[in-house]
Amino acid sequence: MDMELFLGRFHPLVVHLPIGFIVLAVIIESIGLFKKDRQIYKRIVQYALMAVIVSSLITIATGLLLSQGGEYNAETLGRHKWLGIGVAVFSVLVLVLKMKIPKYDRKHSMIVSSVFIFLVGLTGHQGGVLTHGEEYLLTYAPDAIKNMAGFEIADSKKGILPKNQDSILIYGDIVKPMFDQKCASCHNNDKQKGGLNLEGYKDLFTEAESGYPIVQGVLEESELFKRISLPLNNKKFMPPKGKPLSYSELKILEYWINTGADSLAVFDHKNMTPELLQLMIRDYNLDYNPRPYVETIVVEEVDQQKVALLTENGFSVNRLGEDNFLLDVGYEGSIIGGEQIALLKQIGENITFLNLSNCGLTDTMLAKLPELRHLTKIDLHSNPITDNAMQQLQKYMHLEVINLYDTEVSDQGLKLLLDIDSLRRLYLWKTKVTQQMVEENSDNVNVLIDFGGAI
Question: What pLDDT does residue 71 have?
C-alpha cells in the first residue's frame, strides 16, 4: 500500500502533461485551418495526440494508485476517473480519424477541438472538487458573484450571519463556517485527508486515522484541537496551508468543546472567561457580559388611575424611561401605614426601585409588602427595622441593592442578606453590624459592602 501511495502521489505532477499536449494540439489544429499547406500542421497534431495518449495513460495509472488511499468521495472519484479515461479514449479515436479520414475538414476540426476542451474542463473540475471541495470555485469570489450563485453571505466584520446574539449557535454560526473556510478543502465529503471529514456535525466525533477529532467535554483528547493549536513550524500543525485559525477562533472552539460541543449550544456568560467575553466584543461585536436585570425584562404599562391613586396617598411614581414601563416608586410622607403598603400591590408587577426610607417603617409593615417579583433596589434607611425583617427581603429573587443605613440591623441580619444570590451592593453605615463582621465578608466577590455612608 505504501508503494502504491508513493507512486500515486506523482499524479498531481503528471496530470498537467496531457492537458498541455491537448492545448498544443488544439492551437496547432486551429492555426492549420487557415494555411494552404496543412500537412505539416496535421503531422504535429498527430504527434501531440500521441503524447496525449501516453501521458494520459501515465496520469490514469498514478490516479488509480492514489485513489487507493481512500481519502476521496467514491462518487466524485468515479466521475473524475471515467472522465480521465474518456479523454484518453477520445484522443485515440481522434488520432485514428486524422490518420484514416482523407477529408478531415474544418468542420471536423472545430467539433473535435470543442469536445476536447469540454472533456478536459469537466475532468479538471471534478479533480478540483476532489481536492478542494464542492464549492471551491466560488469560495473567494466577490460577494456579487456569490449572491448570483445563491451563496449565503456572512457578515464580513463579524464573520457570522447577523442575528440576535442570544440566538447565535456556536457550532452553526461560528465553528462550522470556520471549518468550511479553513479546513474543509482537505477534509470534506469528497476528500478526507487522514480519514478526517469536517463537513457535518456528526463527522466531528467519528474516529480518524489520528484519533477522535473532538471528544465532548475533554479538550485534551480532542485531536483536532491539538493539531490547530500546535506551533506553526510543527509538521502536524493544521491547516498546513492557508490562513490558520485566529486566537479568538481557538478560544471559541476551546470553550465549545469544554462545554460539551453540542450542536445547539449558545454562549452563556456564566461559564465564559473574562478573556473570551472581551474577545467576543472585539472580534465579533457580541457582548455577552451579564446585563442588569432591569434590561432583560419587559412589562405592560400601568393604568394611570392606579398611579394617580398612589400619588394621592403620598407616593412618587416615575417610569425608568420613555419606552420602559418599570417604575421607581418612593414614599414621600413622614409616617407610612398599612393602607399605603397595600396600595403597592396594584402596581407591584412594575416596581423595580422602591424607596421607603425615613417613614417609620417597622418589621411588621415590611412583612406586609406585596410580591414585587421585579424588585432590584430597595432603600429602607432611617427606619426602626431589625434582623427580623431580613428574611422578608430574602424572598425577592432579583434584589441587587439594599440600603439599610441608620437601622437596627446587626451581624445576624447581614448573614441573612449575604444569602441573597442576586445582591451586589449593601449600605450598612450607622447600623449594629460590626466592623469585624464586615471585614470577614470583605472578600465576598459578589457583594460590595459600603460601611461608610448612605446613598
Answer: 62
**Hey, which residues does 187 pair with through a beta bridge?**
192
Which structural domain, as residue segments, surrounds residue 274? 165-284
pLDDT for residue 454: 42
- DSSP assignment of 341-400 equals HHHGGGGTTTEEEEE-TTS---HHHHHT----TT--EEE--SS---GGGHHHHTT-TT--
The answer to whether residue 25 sits within a structural domain is yes
359 pLDDT more than 90: yes
DSSP 426: E
CA–CA gap between residue 270 and residue 255 (Å, rounded): 12
Q: How far is CA 376 from the centre of its chain?
A: 33
Mean pLDDT of the chain: 86
Instruction: Give whole-number Cα distances, 34 to 25, 31, 103, 104, 112, in Å.
Output: 15, 6, 16, 14, 17
- pLDDT of 152: 56
Global confidence as pTM: 0.51
324-331 vs 401-403, strand pairing mode: unpaired
> Is residue 140 pLDDT above 50, yes or no?
yes
Domain count, the chain: 3
**Residue 232 and residue 318 in one domain:** no
Residue 316 β-bridge partners: 330
Identify the residue with better confidence: 403 or 154.
403
